[in-house]
Write a structure and sequence with these properties.
heterodimer; A: mainly alpha; B: alpha+beta; Glutaredoxin; 2 domains; five-stranded mixed sheet; 5 strands
Chain lengths: ~140, ~240
C-alpha cells in the first residue's frame, strides 16, 4: 500500500513536470529558479526522452503493479514482488544519479526533483519487505 | 482453504481494508490534480524575453511609442537621456553612483529633466529584455525607480541564471511591497514588450552603440561614468 501511495505521489509530480515540458504552461512553481534551470539543462533528457516523461511512465507502471499486488489473486505472486523490487531499485538508482547531477554538474536544485527523489527512497523502503520475501522464497 | 489463509497470514500486503485505501488514493489523486491545475494556471503564459516585431514606424511614431521614465520638470532647460541595459555592470555603476549625483545636483534644482530608456543589448545579455519588462511591470504599480535600482544593485544575483529569472524578479517585487500575483502575471506575458522594443529602436535611431549612453541636450556624453566629465558637460549645456 505504501508503494502504491508513493507511486501515485510520484506520478503527480512527474505529471506536473511533464506538462511544463509539453509547454502547457510557461513557468514552474518552485520557489527558486532551480526547477527551470534543471529542466532546461542538457541533462533533463535521458536517452532522448525527457526525464519527466520517464518519471511519469515509471511511476505509472509502479502504481499499476502495486495495485495489482493488492488484489487477493496476486498477493502471493512472486512476479509482483519481483517487479516491485526491481522498480524500487531502478527508481532509487536513477534518482541518486539525478540528484548527483543537480549537486555536482548543474549546480541547481529543483524542489520537485528532490520531492521525486524522496518518493523514490520511500518506495525503496516500502519495497524492502518484498525483497526479503523474494530472498526467503 | 488452509493454503489461502496461510498465504494471507504470510503476505505483508494482505489483511487490510482495501476500500479505505482506495478512497485514500482517490483523495490524494483529486487533491494532486487540483494542485496541478492551480499550478498550471499560475504559471500560464511564457514571459516575453526578446524584442518583438513592431510595425514599421517612422521617427514620429517611434518617439510616440517609446516612453522614457521622466524625473524632473518638463520645462527644465536641459534634458538628459539615459539608455541602459540591466545586465551591463557599467549601467549598474551609473545608476547607483552617478545618477544620484545628477539628481542631487541638477534634477532636484529643476535644471535638468532625467529620462531613462531601456536599451537591452541582447546577445549574451539574455535577461536584459525581461529585466526591462520587469521594471515596467513594477512601474505599473508605481515603483519603477525602486525596482530599477534594486535590479541593478543586485545584478550579479540574477544575471547568471540560465533561464529567465522570473521568480527572483517576483521576489524583488514583493520585497518592495508590490502585489506579487499582479506582477508575475504581467511578467509572464508579453506586456510592455512593444514598449521596451520601441525604446531600444529609439536608441538605435539615435546611434546608441553601448551602454550606458547618456545624451545631454542632444549630445552624446563622452564620459557618463566620470562624474567630473558628466558634470562639466551638463554645466556646459546649461550655459554655465
Amino acid at each position: 500500500m505504501g508503494i502504491a501511495l508513493c507511486a501515485l505521489v510520484g506520478l503527480l509530480i512527474a505529471a506536473y513536470m511533464s506538462l511544463y515540458k509539453l509547454g502547457a504552461f510557461g513557468m514552474l512553481i518552485c520557489g527558486t529558479d532551480g526547477c527551470e534551470t534543471v529542466q532546461n539543462s542538457p541533462w533533463a533528457v535521458f536517452l532522448g526522452v525527457p526525464i519527466p516523461y520517464l518519471g511519469f511512465f515509471g511511476y505509472g507502471a509502479l502504481l499499476v503493479v502495486a495495485l495489482l499486488g493488492l488484489q487477493p489473486r496476486f498477493q502471493a505472486d512472486r512476479r509482483v514482488a519481483a517487479a516491485l523490487s526491481l522498480g524500487a531499485l531502478l527508481g532509487l538508482a536513477f534518482s541518486a544519479y539525478l540528484t548527483y547531477l543537480e549537486a555536482a554538474v548543474i549546480h541547481a536544485w529543483c524542489r520537485w526533483c528532490i520531492g521525486s527523489a524522496v518518493v523514490a527512497v520511500l518506495v525503496f523502503l516500502f519495497a524492502i519487505p518484498e525483497l526479503l520475501r523474494l530472498r526467503r522464497s | 482453504m488452509h493454503e489461502v489463509r496461510d498465504v494471507a497470514k504470510k503476505n505483508p500486503r494482505g489483511g487490510t481494508n482495501l476500500k479505505a485505501f482506495y478512497l485514500l488514493l482517490g483523495v490524494v489523486a483529486v487533491v494532486g490534480l487540483a494542485l496541478i491545475l492551480y499550478g498550471s494556471s499560475r504559471g500560464s503564459g511564457a514571459a516575453a524575453t526578446e524584442p518583438v516585431n513592431l510595425e514599421a514606424l517612422d521617427a514620429r511614431g517611434l518617439v510616440e511609442k517609446a516612453q522614457g521614465i521622466k524625473e524632473g520638470p518638463d520645462n527644465a532647460p536641459v534634458q538628459v537621456l539615459v539608455f541602459s541595459d540591466y545586465m551591463c555592470p557599467a549601467c549598474a555603476y551609473f545608476a547607483t553612483t552617478i545618477e544620484p549625483l545628477v539628481k542631487q545636483e541638477f534634477v532636484q534644482a529643476g535644471r535638468v529633466q532625467l529620462v531613462n530608456y531601456d536599451f537591452p543589448l541582447g546577445g549574451s545579455h539574455i535577461h536584459s529584455f525581461v529585466a526591462a519588462r520587469a521594471a515596467r511591470c513594477a512601474q505599473d504599480q508605481g515603483k519603477w525607480t525602486e525596482y530599477h535600482n534594486l535590479l541593478l544593485s543586485r545584478q550579479s544575483a540574477w544575471s547568471y541564471s540560465r533561464v529567465a529569472p522570473v521568480e527572483q524578479f517576483t521576489d524583488y517585487a514583493t520585497e518592495l511591497g508590490l502585489n506579487g500575483d499582479t506582477f508575475q502575471s504581467c511578467l509572464n506575458s508579453d506586456t510592455h514588450a512593444e514598449l521596451v522594443t520601441a525604446n531600444h529602436q529609439l536608441g538605435q535611431q539615435l546611434g546608441v552603440g553601448g551602454t550606458p549612453s547618456v545624451f545631454i541636450g542632444g549630445r552624446l556624453s563622452l564620459g557618463p561614468n566620470d562624474w567630473d566629465v558628466l558634470k562639466a558637460e551638463i554645466q556646459r549645456a546649461l550655459g554655465e
